[in-house]
Write the structure tokens for this entry.
Amino acid sequence: MSKTMLEVNGLTTKYITRFHEDVYAVDHVSLKIEQGKSLGIAGESGCGKSTLALSLMGYYFPPLHYTSGDIIIDGKNISGMDPDEVRRNVLGTEIAYIPQAAMNALNPTRKIYKFIEDVILAHNPKANKKDIYEMARHRFSELNLPLEALDKHAVELSGGMKQRVVIAISTILKPKVLIADEPSSALDVTSQKVVIKMLRDMMDKGFIQAMIFITHELPLLYNVTDDIMVMYAGQIVERGSAKEMVFDPVHPYSRGLMRSILVPEEGTRDAKLIAIPGTPPNLKRPPQGCRFAERCRYAQPACRYNQMPILDFDQGRSYRCGLSVDELREIYRKEDEADAQAVANPVESDGPVRLTKGV
């Protein structure tokens, strides 16, 4: 059995606004990642993905506050740990974080090797600067990064190269878990491919032991991660293998994500693009029942009043819904049949236009 690198049980964190309102952006989230595995977290903007990433670091500062739950990295519980101790003994060595828009996180007045120097000296003040530079050259060589980039300023590098450099800096101390928050969202397709390959190579070479990859594009995770977890309004609504989540999503929100994005995968090219109506709820006043009920076309009256527990089904899969898996799959089967019939026998309609993939 593989070793568990990250285990999270019932993690709840909140923002406290200037009006002293509590916003529970991460609500009783649990997850587990084994050594050598990667987990994707998908969901639209505002669902809590980035807040979860920050929360997993165990390092909190206002307006984000820890409420409850456990974060265990390689058997070590970092929940509620003193922030200074987290910064000294956890960040960078146990767990590392690549933030959104990481390419803009570099001070343009400093050379790249200076950032690596700062990271290492923060954990080992007695480290020799010459040795640090040689270590940086060796790591860049291992990651197929140009050595001359070490002596350049951030403004001298392309967007894709800056992103790869930030990843190299973040993982210079070989953290056990790496959290990458939309690391490819601001890049062109070619640069995205290079960055994703770099992350996978780091896993293969042992520079990181496990990875969390966060994006709003669920299909992208199919080629990057082993498992996918879908998040909505601060809660996990479904989890399964990458293949299951892309080709057989069960929760209505997961299915909605898949049907609203172009996916050039076999068996999905003829599906119709259908947007998810509405917007996520205000987490200052979350709904009493299912948080997706107001946007769900299959919602029952009870969905708006009863909280939905997360339920296990098949092997290793789970979802949060009042309808059974069989009921949902039967509904989806009928919808797919109707869509296929509509494509085979098109008729003029005054209704909303739904784009067809591949057109």
Summary: Residues 254-344 form one domain.
